[in-house]
């Protein structure tokens, strides 16, 4: 078992880009300055995805030129092993999106006269041949999600608006449902920007119209299970992800100044927001894409970089780490910085893409220890809010503690007895980590 405490809350500064980090180490960064940025958002790079097989790991990143596949098995010596050309390239390209199924990579773009591409990944690292490249089903899509259990691909935005395709033959998708035309209640949902699916239950992020939960188990009788159109800090309902073992859904509104919403979905007829979280870096900060993995929520937070929240209390996640991938300054109506994240590689390494700074690979001491020791839910700090002295429950005497503010700066540290003085802290929100015999406990408190 690794002793992670010594490096757990180190704050690193990289002078070349004035970047700061917390609990996340940069293992690799790739940029290609010869590629043209988009004319719309000045982004050369867009979506990130990952793939692993036979002990090797791969990063897949979209650019204005096409799709780049890197062997990242050893992050320090990562190398591009394949490039897939696309129907549309150059400064008109803003979005590409990816998902894999049965060793095939599915590729879409949401600009111009594009195509659906399918690449065979089973030959990597030698090659990834394109086995399907056509606009017969649709020329453009904004996002795709593949439910591997049902072998269905859900296609959002673009020219299909929302379609469900069978992947019974993975290289020959077939349309089984054109929702705007085939589902009577679809007009209440409208445009769907992104979708998450588990067990034929789809969580639809429908822009200004909100969140909708739809049952696709009977393709001939699709049912609405729930919706949420009024909630705190509502904006453009952009994307979301369902937690693995808890009934909580994280929702990102792609609107400047809006937090990510944590939603209790245990009762789909009564969706309840339990918390809102953000980077707390700038009034114009804006979240983009997000993914749950094990006990953590990863958020690509545009200008602010990649953020990681610990979710041992899934109703109220706490900040666990971040890495600022971007040199861009937040501005109203501007969308730049960290685009996406992929945390599912077997190694535990985290892939991210930044619109201007390219492909990133991160390691985290927190992630490497998750499977060995899950954070405790029993830790409590009180009173909360607090003015002078904070008390900590549990048998935690002689444990080491660290307290850090929402910018990741360590403000208190030491050996814990049963309490600690916090009277000299500035008013605000703080995160606390306590480490004892390789067990890690997290808490959040407010200083008045």
Description:
The longest helix is centred in the N-terminal third of the chain and has 4 residues, at 5-8. A hairpin with a 6-residue loop joins strand 21 and strand 22 (260-264). It is built from 3 helices and 37 strands. It folds into 2 domains: 5-368, YVTN repeat-like/Quinoprotein amine dehydrogenase (Methylamine Dehydrogenase, Chain H), CATH 2.130.10.10; 381-447, Immunoglobulin-like, CATH 2.60.40. It is mainly β. Helices cover 3% and strands 46% of the residues. The radius of gyration is 22 Å and the shape is globular. Strands 1-2-27-26-25-24 form a 6-stranded antiparallel β-sheet, with no helix packed on it. Strands 3-30-29-28 form a 4-stranded antiparallel β-sheet.
Unreliable stretches, pLDDT < 50, 5 or more residues?
A: 1-19, 369-377
Main β sheet profile: 6 strands, antiparallel
At CATH's second level, what is the architecture of the largest domain? 7 Propeller
How much helical structure, as a percent, in the residues? under 10%
Number of helices: 3
* Alpha-beta classification: mainly beta
- Count of individual domains: 2
- Fourth-level CATH superfamily of the largest domain: YVTN repeat-like/Quinoprotein amine dehydrogenase
The CATH class of the largest domain is identified as Mainly Beta
Tell me the β content: over 45%
Separation of the first and last Cα atoms? 38 Å
Strands side by side in the biggest sheet: 1-2-27-26-25-24
Can you tell me the CATH topology of the largest domain?
Answer: Methylamine Dehydrogenase, Chain H
Rg, alpha carbons = 22 Å
Averaged pLDDT: 90
CA-based shape: globular
How many extended strands? 37
């Amino acid at each position: 078992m690794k002793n992670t405490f010594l490096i757990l809350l180190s704050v690193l500064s990289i002078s070349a880009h004035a970047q700061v980090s917390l609990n996340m180490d940069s293992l690799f960064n790739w940029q290609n300055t010869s590629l043209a940025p988009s004319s719309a958002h000045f982004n050369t790079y867009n979506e990130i995805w990952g793939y692993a097989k036979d002990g090797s790991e791969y990063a897949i990143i979209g650019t204005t030129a096409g799709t780049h596949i890197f062997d990242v098995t050893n992050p320090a010596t990562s190398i591009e092993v394949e490039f897939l050309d696309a129907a549309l390239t150059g400064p008109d390209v803003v979005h590409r999106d990816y998902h894999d199924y049965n060793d095939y990579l599915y590729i879409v773009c949401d600009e111009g006269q594009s195509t659906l591409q399918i690449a065979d990944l089973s030959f990597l690292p030698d090659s990834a041949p394109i086995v399907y490249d056509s606009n017969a089903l649709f020329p453009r899509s904004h996002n795709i999600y593949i439910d591997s259990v049902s072998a269905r691909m859900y296609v959002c935005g673009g020219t299909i608006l929302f379609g469900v395709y069978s992947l019974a033959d993975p290289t020959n998708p077939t349309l089984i449902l054109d929702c705007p035309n085939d589902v009577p209640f679809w007009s209440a949902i409208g445009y769907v920007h992104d979708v998450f699916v588990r067990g034929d239950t789809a969580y639809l992020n429908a822009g200004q119209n909100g969140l909708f939960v739809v049952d696709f188990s009977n393709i001939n009788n699709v049912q609405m299970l729930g919706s949420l159109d009024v909630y705190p800090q509502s904006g453009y309902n952009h994307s979301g992800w369902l937690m693995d073992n808890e009934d909580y859904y994280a929702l990102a509104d792609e609107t400047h100044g809006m937090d990510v919403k944590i939603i209790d979905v245990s009762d789909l007829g009564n969706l309840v927001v339990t918390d809102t979280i953000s980077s707390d870096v700038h009034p114009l900060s804006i979240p983009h894409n997000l993914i749950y993995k094990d006990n953590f929520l990863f958020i690509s937070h545009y200008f602010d970089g990649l953020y990681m929240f610990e979710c041992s209390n899934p109703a109220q996640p706490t900040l666990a780490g971040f890495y600022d991938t971007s040199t861009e300054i937040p501005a109203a109506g501007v969308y730049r910085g960290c685009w996406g994240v992929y945390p599912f590689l077997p190694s535990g390494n985290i892939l991210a893409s930044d619109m201007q700074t390219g492909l990133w690979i991160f390691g985290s001491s927190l992630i490497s220890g998750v499977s060995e020791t899950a954070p405790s839910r029993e830790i409590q700090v009180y009173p909360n809010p607090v003015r002078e002295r904070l008390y900590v429950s549990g048998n935690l005497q002689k444990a080491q503690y660290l307290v850090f503010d929402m910018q990741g700066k360590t403000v208190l540290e030491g050996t814990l007895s049963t309490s600690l003085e916090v009277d000299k802290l500035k008013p605000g929100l703080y995160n606390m980590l306590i480490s004892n015999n390789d067990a890690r406990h997290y808490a959040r408190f407010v200083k008045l």
